[in-house]
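Hi R.,

Here's the chain you asked about this morning:
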Amino acid sequence: MLSPPGNWLPQAPLNPLHLDWLTAADIQVAILRLDQIDPLISGNKWFKLIEHLHAADHAGADGTISLGGAHSNHLHALAAAGKRFGFNTVGLLRGHPQDTPTVKDLQDFGMQLHWLGYAGYRARHDPGFWLPWQAQYPTLQAVPEGGGGLRGARGCMSLRDQVTEQLHGLGWSDYDGWWLACGTGTTLAGLVLAETGDHPVYGALAVPDDHGVAQQVESIVREGGLANPAYELFDACRGGFAKVDPLLLAFIEQTEQASGIPLEPLYTGKALLALKQQVEIGTFAKGTRLIFIHTGGLQGRRGFTSSP
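And the predicted structure, written out as tokens:
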């Protein structure tokens, strides 16, 4: 078995987020703490992986092979799952060998690593890219980069249920939308499919436009059979993927001190800063209630010496 028995899914707490700039604007935000679901298979990664692991089980695979970088939250979660549930994992990594905390964990979890260089990694979308890897590892199931695609999105659809089950505890009868960071757009697409237009989903783009997130979201929701998706994307990349700046780092430090919630600078920190900027320019009406997703990824900040 590549995945836990039954329909086990970790439960994430939904807590009110109290920050001065939200109070001043009369905006209410509840934060879904996916960073707290598991010490290793953390954040949205587990939800994105679950349907891929079920598919690998169904195909009779004895493990998985996937792609990522030297700080990849996706590969970290996949390798941790492999160690915990007893299946083989192979990682195809961007660039040349690096000794990062994430890479050390991948090795400790038993993942076999192949470094592709930068040109080799850019070729991952080319026709035939997977053929030699399938020949080398015929018993492994390929999982898309970041756990993406419709399977990854379907795994994230259950996040809506986790929120609706906890609204009463907040004293809320409903909410007005979602706000979350986007790297591949998979989690956002899953929420859009789950909502079927009931509530809008707002994505804070942690990567530049040329990463094709909008196209990926459209492709997933179309494949999922949804004709009129309700979502909107906002730029939050601050100059590029993995780019940080003093304003972002100061914001993260101040927010952590005010809330006690740990953030990381590549996704959740950027998404929350982008929300602050939209709140301050009046994008949302007074009284708006939003669900903010903490997508985890805290392990990755160990490799960024400039992060808090």
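The chain has 13 helices and ten strands.

Let me know if you need anything else.
M.
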